[in-house]
Amino acid sequence: METLTALQAQGIRLGVVTNGAVQRQQPKIAHLQIRPYLSTVVISEAVQVKKPDPRIFARALAEVGCQASQAWFVGDHPVNDVRGAAAVGLRPIWLTGVHSWPPDQPAPQWQIGALIELVAMVPQERNPAT
Known about the structure:
Layout lengths: L1 H8 L4 E5 L3 H11 L5 E6 H4 L6 H11 L7 E4 L2 H10 L3 E5 L15 E2 L4 H10 L4
Parallel strand pairs: 1-2, 3-4, 4-5
């Protein structure tokens, strides 16, 4: 909640893109009590397309009202999240510690160990000289 509150306070629009069944994913989001922070929730079963398919990312971007070049996508899966997001022009940020990075692939440019790290990245992105 701390991370979501801090990002929202900085004017960041947030969304979730997740693979899975609606009946499994909606209760998770409800249990976490994060829906008020989100501009969109795109669940693969509901839209009949899964990550890393570019169409699921495009759907979320349209619902948030943002161009891919102006957005970040944070995810823990090297293919579905990082490579999928990069393929549509999003800045992929790998959340480490869940899935191993494939040793035959170059390390991702952006990676974090915890979501709270995003809060410090926003001002750096907006003011790269500081």
